[in-house]
Amino acid sequence: LLSRSFSATKRSRRRIMVARVGGGDSPQDWFYSLPPITRCMLVAVLVMTCGSSFGMINPASLSLNWTQIVHRFEIWRLFSAFFFYGTFGLPFLINLYLLVQYSSRYEESPYNTGAGGTSADYAWMLMIGGAILCALGYCFQLVFMGEAFSFMILYVWTRKNPDEQTSLFGFKVQAFYLPFALIAFRLLIGNPIFLDILGIGAGHLYYFLHYVFPSSYGQTVVKTPAFLREAFGGAVAQPPIGRAGAPAPRPQAGHNWGGGRVLGAD
């Protein structure tokens, strides 16, 4: 009986491990199938949204208020400003979907920045991107950065998987063009796109620091620190290396036209 129960438990855990976003036998299976960082961010968004919607949390206490951060040391604002999407509604659902869908996809296989492509590398990307967005929020006097945060994660995922086919409201879209298709959709329905553009800018700066700068100047800028590797169990691993010690070629979007042929050659 104990052996049979242990086997059933193993099968249940296996189903949870292989479940993907939108899959699973139950909401509980789906929730526990999410990678750890994505799961925590989902809980943070729901707690803040429910708390503000039911009057238990004042949204002003979650904003990126630099006076309160510096003079009253309310450092939680550096985190809460990224996970508040407003009250329940269609914009909230769209932003939450983008966050969970593409955060989970990227966390499963992030850029290897020194921890072997684990959640530690993803956590370091979020910290760098969050710092960039905080700086932009200070410059433009923005108080909530949730939408920009979601677009930053989405953009980095599309740069890592530019040729993957995804869908936008039933239409097939190549991943490389997905952020711009979403911006076009938001323009079409009359929504502001400034935060989306900031998110793309922050994501592209991370991509530049991780891929473009090392290949051009031979210096590694983005390297996951040891405390994150220890926290998430990632092993020390060097990023992929191409010829002559340079980083591996960047993934390119678009059609592969082949090597060509010299005119006049037999």
Termini separation comes to 75 Å
SS element count, helices: 11
Radius of gyration (Å):
21 Å
Uncertain runs are 1-22, 242-266
State the helicity in percent bands. Answer: 55-70%
Which strand order does the major sheet show?
Answer: 1-2
**Mind describing the biggest β-sheet?**
2 strands, antiparallel
Number of strands: 2
What is the overall silhouette?
Answer: globular
**Order of helical and strand elements:** HHHHHHHHEEHHH
Secondary-structure-based class equals mainly alpha
**What's the average pLDDT?**
82
Strand content: under 5%
How would you sum up this structure, described in words?
The chain contains eleven helices and two strands, in the order H-H-H-H-H-H-H-H-E-E-H-H-H. The chain is mainly α and 266 residues long. A two-stranded antiparallel sheet has the order 1-2. It is globular. It starts with a helix and ends in a 34-residue tail after the last helix. Helix 6 packs parallel to helix 8 and helix 7 crosses helix 11.
Keywords for this entry:
single chain, 266 residues, mainly alpha, globular, disordered N terminus, disordered C terminus
Brief summary:
The protein has 266 residues and is mainly alpha-helical.
Ordered list of secondary-structure elements with their pairings:
Elements: H1 2-18, H2 27-33, H3 36-53, H4 66-71, H5 77-80, H6 90-108, H7 119-140, H8 146-160, E1 165-168, E2 171-174, H9 178-188, H10 194-217, H11 226-232
Helix pairs in contact: 1-2, 3-6, 6-8, 7-8, 7-10, 7-11, 8-10
